Amino acid sequence: MTSINSNLIFFVNGKKVIETKPNPEITLLRYLREKLKLSGTKLGCAEGGCGACTVMVSKFNRDTNVVNHFSVNACLMPVCALHGLAVTTVEGIGSTRTRLHPVQERIAKAHGSQCGFCTPGIVMSMYSLLRNSSKPSMKELEIAMQGNLCRCTGYRPIIEGFRTFTKEYETCDMGDACCKKNKQGCNATLVDDKLFNSSEFVPYDHSQEPIFPPELKLVDQYDKESLYFENDRGIIWFRPTQLHQLLEFKQQHKTAAKIVVGNTEVGVEVKFKHFDYKFFANPSHIRELNELTVTENGLKVGAAVTLTQLKNFIDAKLNCNPIEISILDMLHWFAGTQVRNVASIGGNLMTSSPISDLNPILLAANAELEVQSFDNGKRIIKMDENFFTGYRKNSIKDNEVLISILIPNTIDNQHFVAYKQAKRREDDIAIVTAAFNFIFKTDTNIIEKANFVFGGMAPTTILAPKTAALVKGKEWNRELIEIVNQSLVDEIPLSFDAPGGSVLYRKSLTLSLFFKAFLKISNDLEKSQNISILNERERSGIGGFKTLVPKSSQLFEKVSSDQSLTDPIYRPKVHMSALKQATGEAIYCDDIPKYENELYLALVLSTKAHAKILAIDESEALKQPGVYAFFSAKDLTSNQNKIGPVFHDEELFIRETVTSQGQILGVIVGEDQNVVQKAARLVKIQYEELSPIIVTIEDAIKHNSVFPGYPKFLINGDVDKAFNEADHVLEGEIRLGGQEHFYLETHAAIAIPKDGDEIEIIASTQHPSEIAKLAAHVLGIPNNRVVCKTKRLGGGFGGKESRGALVSLPVTFAAYKLNRPVRLMLDRDEDMMITGTRHPFLFKYKVGFMNNGKIMGCDLKVYNNAGYSFDLSFSVLDRAIFHFQNAYKIPNVRIEGNCMKTNMPSNTAFRGFGGPQGMMVGENIIRQIAKKLNKDLTEIMDINLYNEGDITHYNQLLSNCNVRRCFEEVQKSSNFAKRRNEIAIFNEKNRWKKRGISIVNTMFGIAFTALHLNQTGALVHVYVDGSVLISHGGVEMGQGLHTKILQVAATTLKIPLEKIHIQETATDKVPNTSPTAASAGSDLNGGAVLNACKIIYDRLAPYRENYPNEKWEQWVYKAYFDRVSLSATGFYATPDIGYDPSTNSGHPFNYFTYGSAVSEVEIDCLTGDHQVIRTDIVMDVGSSLNPAIDIGQIEGAFIQGYGLFVLEELIYSPTGTLYSKGPGMYKIPGFGDIPAEFNVSLLTGSSNPRAVYSSKAIGEPPLFLASSVFFAIKEAIGAARIEEGLESDFQLLCPATSSRIRMACKDNITKKFDEYEESKHKNMKPWNVMP
Predict the structure, then answer these.
(1) Which residues bind substrate (predicted)?
(2) DSSP labels for 1108-1138?
């Protein structure tokens, strides 16, 4: 008789946890953060897509007597699933107060932690790897990181830090280019190449790791006992240990019983789809469901076997058949490591997703399933065309349990291949999957049997039986291609409005993936049967891309030998919070412990894009236990309810008419997050829908939906005269989509009522002063009663400059009304739905130029998609107009700018602030001219590049213009000319893989274009012990601002860096601060701190003079006793700037940051997949205050820009619904997406007299350089188009997704769908649109 336990027992960081009332609804993440107060593990997405919540789980395997360690996503792991297991969090491996674990030390000291919010999860992924392999390979490191995302660093420094643990570390990653092999330094004597010294790292000794809890090894009671947990809502968690228990449970509850292994699907359904499952059964301890057995008929896999277990088992087999090899290959790209570690093959099959990675393989292989029920016993189901019966449905009965899957053996004359195409190779859901199974007559190329299976082409995974029947008996030759193509076109239709979009691409993929299979199988048949089918050029289409071992170099100016060793300026100092971030000790807004009497707030959001509110009924919500209040527009005056960063054209709570989905209608306040979120869904809203619903820029143009005051014009010179005198005039159009900020920490705020009418706000914001000012306005109290504080942000990128008000203001209002602390941290889907994105843009231009390529004039129309309110869209448009020419002189311009009003969330600031979108015009023009004149691109760039003393189209004189130096140096360092020739040879030899290389320049203006924002203050205190405390107006969000400020202060005061500390940014310390934005944080705040430090330094001058043999501490002490003030306020206002649009004169920018980049890519013409082979960057950062931080900013900006230009696609419905509301559908670059070789060089000998210590701003300028990847892709596509006799100059929408790449590589396959019977779809709306 199996005992049943109602207590949950597990270990966390070596300490035993006994939970007497386990709650089946609680995840491990919630338990760690709320119950155990371990806040190092972060919430990034709640769907297992970002890795911020990664922890290690350890389990003793009694069969092998080995402790298995594996990384998991705590956000999905049910705490009830941990019985008898050991959990290790980031706090459990090291701390700054005791000792650091080598993983923590190395990621920090290698500069791999910027904002730090992702760092604990990345640390735990690496730690889990080391616990399984103390000397891993780089391949193992690659796999370990597949489930982790970072938005700040660009990944390179993380890889470099962790590379020191690997087997390959002893060899230089630059290979033959290694400077030591070449018997020379990495560059001239003025250049350094070491951002960190690995010899200083504490050696890793795996024998010193904490031991696995002995109790879990010695006692098998926890494995043998069944578990039964039930909470107060009647939610049941049952862990049987015998099969009959599970069958009885399933018989009793049927479809209501969810069998959960990893919870990777059900967890998402419960969190985001709000499914209310009542009965959970966990089969992890049932032998029959967890066995892997090789039988005479094939590999028998228990349904609860995890994907990692399956992968390791197949990997260890001596002889794998083609089906197993296909599974192994597919599992490499299946989700992330954390998901594979817990997700089961049975769960994947039973979910029956039409875009499953494995189901096409199992269906094509005709796998056999063993199912069993309590009443009817066992039966075998063969996977065939009848297995999947509908969307996420199959033929297994409600009372049956899947026991095992038999993956059949193959025979000698059988060929099996499978493919998956996604937006991102690593950790992404499929767009289309395919599996092909061909059996040939013995020793022939005659097809005896075939299976064609596709995922992503219907509501289920489907077979193509007609095509299979058609090819039976046919010879495997080139004629087969067209037979199959035409049959698949007819057999697999896809409606124009099919869910998932990209209809033409998906249809093309069915043929493209078959063609790849044809190439692969033909290649194999040629070897086995000595026949000839393919030519050499075609073989490039056989394989896909594999992640290359990363290489990199970082070059920067050496510190002068005259500089004191204790002077930190210009040195690569570690981010001041990096160690705390790596140990989980760094505190973010939601990490702050819960206050006494604290309440939680949930937003009630509009679900319509354009509608009149007829009624709001909160009565049902207010009846729920634990709910305290509902607030809406009725609780505020009309004036108090009006908000906005510049123009008060928004409502905090919508009163009458919603103009976008995701607008706030009201808020529910109650005991905790679960209570208020469930109550918020009970608030009933009655709407009257209005039209039109305007989503896209094209919609807005059609309906003339423009904000008041637009269009606006900038005119310089005589464009019409320039066109008349030009030898050529061309027209063009550029279209860019938006981009989600995807900071790892979502918006968060806590408001705490203080004495009487005072209130304190702790907010995740880039602009504390704005939050405080608006809060005072909403509450109707003076600004001096409101204090806003920000310690650090888990990323910002502009997204937390103005839109944080949507979180902070409701929280503050509720706290003030209820006189209790109130908290809110947005869920990822809420954040993405309501806070806006980078602005989509449309540019239409006409350009005149001479025969030599010199540009004479440009007529430009600019449209940005502002969303439902102004926000900062007018300034974003201004910067796009200022930057449209990029680094090229265009003497005559006429620009019309339009802010388009749409029924979209209000779009907002994002790194670059319109500049990168505008720069695309200049780069497109340069390329279009080169194509037209058939001249070398670099020749056209060279003749048009700005020179010292040139004047821009907004009449600013250029001084210290280094763009030409960057341009020339990057060509040399990248071997641009040589590699371009090599690429031409590669393209000649390969038909289905093409390479491209491109060069891009950037010239980014530094300053707020709103003059009044170019100011800030600082407060510096010196204490009697000599320690220094600084407060300034800037916010630390990963960019290393505080670290640079420390360096500035230490150098100015001439004291060690360690004596200085920076606390939070607070409006009661420094008032009226500007947002930390526009890349001006170091310039402004550095200037203010420099000013304050100089004041104090000068006050201490008499003591230095009178007591020259004493030190700082003694001077301070003496000054104190002489009653000399040791505190000073500093102030800085950027001098000599200001622009008058009415006369088009002045200086909108303080100076410019320049740079150039060369990128090389390879594309797969059949799938649209691509790989960035190499990127070289030369950046002018003046005299870098901190080369490690500046290079980190360059790399991080580049990878974020790569996302903008190539990877990241916002998916909206025609009615304004955002589909891409999390990492499941919205893909930012991952570890595997960075350039395989990534070289960054800081320009030497550059100074900048207009900023602190001759430095330059760096946060935004490098982002545009990632367009070099976009243009390299375009070059590669052009090479493919030439094969078909098409023009190599064509319009490519941005981002250049796999879909757009494939469809631009026109060939016989895409031509079948080019027309796609457009006449039939005139009245049919597509599933998604480009905003």
Answers:
(1) 801, 879, 913, 1009
(2) TTS-HHHHHHHHHHTT---EEEEEEE--S-E
User: Which residues in 980-1095 belong to E strands, given as ranges?
Assistant: 993-1006, 1015-1022, 1028-1032, 1060-1062, 1065-1066
Say what the pLDDT of residue 756 is. Answer: 86
**Mean pLDDT along residues 1046-1063:** 97
Task: Decide: helix, strand or coil at residue 362.
Answer: helix
pLDDT in tens, 364-405: 999 999 999 999 999 999 999 999 999 999 999 999 999 999
Active site residues: 1260
1093 labeled binding residue: no
Looking at residue 549, its amino acid is V
Average pLDDT over residues 990-994: 98
The C-alpha atoms of residue 42 and residue 35 are separated, in whole angstroms, by: 14
**In this predicted model, what pLDDT tens digit does every residue of 147-201 receive, in sequence order?**
999 999 999 999 999 999 999 997 655 555 554 444 343 444 689 999 999 999 9
CA distances to 517, 843, 862, 915, 961 from 921, rounded to whole Å, are: 40, 7, 10, 10, 21
Range with lowest mean pLDDT among 255-259, 738-742, 761-765, 1311-1315: 1311-1315
**Smallest Cα–Cα separation from 198: which of 266, 111, 283, 139?**
111
CB 121 within 8 A of CB 54: yes
The amino acid sitting at 1136 is: D
The token duo for 1033 is 């107006």
**DSSP 3-state assignment of 1032?**
strand
Q: How many CB atoms lie within 10 A of CB 515?
A: 20
Q: Name the token pair of 1265.
A: 């350089």
To which H or E segment does residue 525 belong? helix 503-529
Element spanning 790, H or E: strand 786-790
Tokens of 49: 């897509």
**Residue 266 annotated as binding?**
yes
Task: Return d(Cα 1266, Cα 1272) in angstroms, integer.
Answer: 10
Tokens of 808: 């902070």
259 is in an annotated binding site: yes
State the Cα angle at 354 between 349 and 359, rounded to 5°: 35
Distances (CA, A) of 1210 to 496, 692, 863, 1218, 1220: 19, 21, 18, 8, 6
CA atoms within 13 A on the CB side of 193: 15
- Asked if 605 contacts 665 with a C-beta cutoff of 8 angstroms, the reply is yes
Place of tokens 């203006």: 1005
Cis-peptide into 711, omega within 30 deg: yes
- Is residue 281 a contact partner of residue 259, using CB atoms and an 8 Å limit? yes
Widest CA span in the chain: 103
Q: 629 pairs with which residues across the strands?
A: 669
Average pLDDT over all residues of the chain: 96
d(CA 1013, CA 247) in angstroms, rounded, equals: 68
Instruction: Kindly indicate the confidence band of residue 4, based on its pLDDT and cuts at 50, 70 and 90.
Output: confident
Whether residue 348 is annotated as binding a ligand: the answer is yes
Q: Give the other-Cβ count within 10 Å of 1232's Cβ.
A: 22
User: What whole-number distance in Å separates Cα of residue 623 and Cα of residue 1119?
Assistant: 64
Q: Which residues pair with 1180 in a beta bridge?
A: 1154
Nearest alpha-carbon partner for 1194 in 1159, 1241, 1147: 1241
Q: For residue 446, which phi and psi values (nearest 5 degrees)? A: -95, 125
**Distance separating the N- and C-terminal Cα atoms of the chain:** 62
What pLDDT score was predicted for residue 1319?
45
Q: What residues does 4 pair with on adjacent strands? A: 226
Cα separation, 22 vs 227, whole angstroms = 11
Is 932 assigned to a binding site? no
Give the other-Cβ count within 10 Å of 312's Cβ. 13
